[in-house]
Amino acid sequence: SVSAESMIPSHQNYVKMVIPKTVEQRRRIESSISNNFLFKNLDEDQHEDVVNAMTEKRFKCNENVIEQGAVGDFFYVVEAGTLDVFVAKNGKPSEKVFEYGSGGSFGELALMYNGPRAATVTATSDVVLWALDRITFRRILMENTSRKRRMYEEFLETVPLLVSLEPYERHKIADALESVYFDDGQEVVKQGDQGDNFFIIESGEATVTKCNDAGVEYAIPGLRPGQYFGELALLNDMPRAATVRAKGRLKCATLGKRAFVRLLGPVVEIIKRNSDNYQTIEQLVQQQQAAAEAASEAT
Ligand code: 1OR
């Protein structure tokens, strides 16, 4: 309860918020935040501070958790239930722009930028939320979040696949991205393997090859910064359709499968359309035979 809240002085200039919880409540918080990127890179103390500071809040279906224009007080993580997000712009009536289910989180913008709430968030079922106060959010979660959004912002604006997205949609992608590095010749994905990740090239280049049944390797045009790969296995639940290797030092931004499905939903049709242009192994074989014949005729 609120009266049991305690404020523990720390050695720095703030007091830690500690709201007593049962073991069962802690367990529910852990499972609610386990798949949320914003909580991923916390050390043990930060993690403990966040869990300590969270408060359980319940809302009934149709209740507003956040109202556009209001002052920001809490950041929320969804344990159970569903919510819709509405934005009203330039006097136009509110339009639904997004929805959340368990594991989702919202309400960070007003806390990060000290601005009014940018949207209204309404429960579309009875919901159980974990609320984190503004001070703890800013002290522990904000630095990481804004650093990552800033870090990827410019890059994501240059990725052709993502130009049609709202800036806020690219921010959510930035939250979920992680950069990975590969050395010259290293395999990033291997034909036939199970696929769990999607990749966008940040810097460097990659070669792509495809093997036929006899194991003969055919080269496919390579990939450059801003281009992506690894989507087919995630779209179709099929093994990797080609092998991608680093050509020189390669840096990629990766998304896991869950984030891919959730965050790239708005561009999934574009991804599918682009993949229709991929050459089949038969086309590759034909092309390379034709090229070889042309070369032998020329000599
Ligand atoms: P907040 O503190 O402003 C409302 O309170 C929250 O709704 C906001 O933080 C976000 O966490 C969440 N634009 C703005 N806020 C959004 C949006 C959004 N979606 C969710 N929130 N969108 C852009 C609409 C033009 C939707 C993008 C998919």
TrEMBL record:
Start and end residues of each Cyclic nucleotide-binding domain: 38-158, 161-281
GO molecular function, one term: protein kinase A catalytic subunit binding
Alphabetical keyword list: cAMP, cAMP-binding, Nucleotide-binding, Phosphoprotein, Repeat
GO biological process: cellular response to stress
Entry binding sites for 3',5'-cyclic AMP 1: 108, 117
Binding site for 3',5'-cyclic AMP 2: 231, 240
Any single Gene Ontology cellular-component annotation: cAMP-dependent protein kinase complex
Keyword Membrane: no
Presence of the UniProt keyword Phosphoprotein in the record: yes
Subunit organization: Tetramer, composed of 2 regulatory (R) and 2 catalytic (C) subunits. In the presence of cAMP it dissociates into 2 active monomeric C subunits and an R dimer.
Family from the record: Belongs to the cAMP-dependent kinase regulatory chain family.
Protein's recorded name: cAMP-dependent protein kinase regulatory subunit
Source lineage: Eukaryota, Fungi, Fungi incertae sedis, Mucoromycota, Mortierellomycotina
Residue numbers of the full-length protein present here: 138 to 436 of 448
